[in-house]
Design a protein that fits this description.
The protein is an alpha/beta fold. It has a single domain, classed as Response regulator (Rossmann fold). It is 42% helix and 25% strand. The protein has three helices and four strands, in the order E-H-E-H-E-H-E. The protein has a four-stranded parallel sheet with strand order 2-1-3-4, with helices on both faces. Helix 1 links the parallel strand 1 and strand 2. The chain is globular. The termini are far apart.
Length: 83
């Protein structure tokens, strides 16, 4: 079975690390962790993840929902929002 590639976008370090552990324990591959919306867009374009776990409220000029909208217009991926 092909391991699905997951990108985590979360600005709280401990939350991102815990989420990474849970995802990898479930058999998926975490290909990156971003803490900013702009970086998430760039990494999504570069990595082309199957799924993105996206924090809605990021400490950035661009929110998680804005980043998700931009990403989904550029690549085919699924996004799970976190709050």
């Amino acid at each position: 079975m092909d391991r699905k590639k997951i990108l985590i976008v979360e600005d709280e370090v401990l939350t991102a690390q815990h989420l990474e552990m849970l995802i990898e324990d479930a058999g998926y591959s975490v290909v990156g962790i971003c803490d900013r919306g702009e970086r998430a867009i760039k990494e999504a374009l570069r990595l082309k993840p199957d799924w993105i776990f996206m924090d809605v409220m990021l400490k950035d000029s661009i929110s998680g929902s804005e980043a998700a909208l931009k990403i989904t217009t550029l690549i085919d991926t699924k996004i799970i929002f976190l709050t």
